[in-house]
Amino acid sequence: MLRLNGIETRYGKIVALRNMSLEVREGEIVALLGMNGAGKSTTLKTISGLLRPKAGTIEFMGQPVDQLSPEEIVRRGIIHVPEGRKIFPGLTVKENLILGATSRKISMTQVKQELQEILDIFPELIPLLDQLGWSLSGGQQQMCAIGRGLMAKPKLLMLDEPSLGLAPLIVQNMFHTIQKINRNGTTVLLVEQNARQSLAIAHRGYVAEAGKIVASDEASNLLNGIHHAYLGAA
Ligand code: ATP
């Protein structure tokens, strides 16, 4: 479904990705793991068109997408939920969710129906629908951010550190929900520092270090500690 081949991405003179190659197959959850600064967020930003690679290719559904605008990449079905749960603080939860559907030409009736589907996945948001974004807890904001991403009906959902800063019980709930979203038919590329919990729900995993992949395997093999030197104590 998605294939990165030899991607190089820079911030000015700083080379953040060097020869980054990975693949996500339809139906999978793929975990992209690695320490701070390994290049995980840069990989997602390059896929979603926010950064333009200096070298290499990105293919999605058999088509090159590395020269497309971020808007066109969204229209092709790739949705990026960035780190730090970027929801609109001055809008209500309902407004934030509905904004997720603006890239698609659908009727208000359909929006309402799809909103209901999102609330089936995140029932915790139902009592919060009229509350403003800023007033939500970290976990609630993360649910709202992912829910907004789902309103775009992505083929591929890319999540950047969804567990960051959440309490352990909420983290566990978040990973279960990601698994549920995947079982409902959405392919997921999951960037995480939380190696154990993401590998527990992923099909396959990649480990990035200094802008390239240094290990990749079935999630269960990675989890069994074959590459524990790269995963550290996470
Ligand atoms: P983190 O979990 O800390 O976000 P990461 O694996 O996602 O880590 P990236 O954020 O992709 O790593 O960073 C990869 C490299 O690019 C690092 O060396 C980082 O310092 C550098 N970098 C990231 N963003 C910028 C920027 N806006 N300007 C300059 N250098 C940057």
Name some characteristics of this structure.
single chain, about 230 residues, alpha/beta, 6-stranded mixed sheet, 4-stranded antiparallel sheet, 9 helices, about 25% strand, globular, binds adenosine-5'-triphosphate, nucleotide-binding, AAA+_ATPase, BCAA_Transport_ATP-bd_LivF, amino-acid transport
Give a structural overview.
This protein is α/β, with parallel strands linked by helices and 234 residues long. It contains nine helices and ten strands. The protein has helices at residues 40-47, 70-76, 93-99, 108-121, 138-150, 168-183, 195-201, 219-223, 228-231; strands at 2-11, 14-24, 29-33, 55-60, 63-64, 78-81, 156-160, 187-192, 204-209, 212-218. The strands form two sheets. The protein has a six-stranded mixed sheet with strand order 6-7-8-3-9-10, with helices on both faces. Strands 2-1-4-5 form a four-stranded antiparallel sheet, with helices on one face. Helix 3 (93-99) packs parallel to helix 5 (138-150). The structure holds adenosine-5'-triphosphate.
